[in-house]
Design brief:
Helix 4 links the parallel strand 1 and strand 2. A 5-stranded parallel sheet has the order 3-2-1-4-5. A two-stranded antiparallel ribbon has the order 6-7. It has 8 helices and 7 strands, in the order H-H-H-E-H-E-H-E-H-E-H-E-H-E-E. It is an alpha/beta fold and about 180 residues long. The C terminus is likely disordered. It is about 35% helix and about 20% strand. Bound molecules: S-adenosylmethionine. S-adenosylmethionine binds next to helix 4.
């Protein structure tokens, strides 16, 4: 089921302007170079920044995301025609015979892995990614570091900002205040 947040057309349009520094993607670009990757499956491609960047370097890329509004933004980017875009899940991609064993690398940039909250969902996703990878293929994804206690910064006071986004006007961003309970 698509994430309601990323399926919202305005959220999709302000996603890139609100987070213009994508140096977090450098690690994925480095992996492509280090492992001599020819084909990438970008799972949870969102607005397509990584997919377009890799395609511009001559890498074959398929970007998949269930949020149609985000993929619409991706499709409008310079060089987007070099990428194959799929609105759906990686299960949809794995169901296509032409996609089986096709990719050297699957990527989940910017905490895509954290959208899978249950073991069943995560294992199904990993299984479908495995189907799409070549026997020596790799999956690169991110985890949070619990010791960083990032959630302590997910407060209105620490995170709220207003950014004037061209064409969209002032856009408020930040985390809602929430109470966390810890056992000890
Ligand atoms: C924080 S965004 C990251 C987008 C992009 N990878 C980036 O680097 O900007 C998380 C993305 O995960 C996507 N997502 C949510 N559920 C998903 C699923 N079941 N399969 C694939 N992607 C999913 C959302 O639609 C959203 O685009």
């Amino acid at each position: 089921m698509p994430d309601a947040l990323f399926s919202h057309p305005r959220v999709a349009r302000v996603y890139d302007p609100l987070d213009p520094d994508r140096s977090d993607l450098d690690t994925y670009v480095d992996l492509v170079r280090e492992f001599g990757v020819d084909a990438v499956l970008d799972v949870g491609c969102g607005t397509g920044t990584l997919a377009c960047r890799l395609a511009a370097q001559g890498v074959e890329v398929l970007g998949v995301d269930p949020a149609g509004a985000s993929v619409t933004v991706a499709r409008a980017k310079t060089g987007a025609e070099r990428v194959e875009w799929v609105v759906g899940t990686v299960e949809d991609v794995a169901a296509r015979p032409d996609q089986r064993g096709r990719y050297d690398l699957a990527t989940m940039s910017a905490n895509v892995a954290q959208v899978f909250l249950g073991d069943e969902e995560w294992l199904a996703t990993l299984g479908s990614i495995r189907t799409c990878l070549r026997p020596s293929g790799r999956l690169a994804f991110e985890t949070r570091v619990p010791a960083d206690r990032a959630w302590e910064r997910w407060t209105k006071e620490a995170s709220h900002q207003v950014v004037d986004v061209e064409g969209e006007g002032p856009s408020r961003t930040g985390c809602r205040s929430r109470r966390w309970t810890e056992s000890s």
